[in-house]
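=== RUN LOG ===
request id: a7f3
mode: sequence -> structure
chains: 1
length: 70
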Amino acid sequence: MAIASVSTITSASTESWQHAAELGFERARQTLRGITGLKVIEEKAKVEEGRITEFLVTLQVIFLLEEESG
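=== RESULT ===
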């Protein structure tokens, strides 16, 4: 039986929301095994002097929990 978990993370980029999502996913891959999907749940932007200076995304990363041995 497979059991999944969800981890919520926020990532930022000065380029785009897609780039922010890719950076967040790459970082999640470094610590989470068994990632099966992700969902962008929020997109925000930081604005300074009338210009977007930073794109932020909040992601839900879905991954399978490892079975207990023993």
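=== NOTES ===
Residues 17-31 form the longest helix (15 residues).
The chain has one domain: 4-64.
=== END ===
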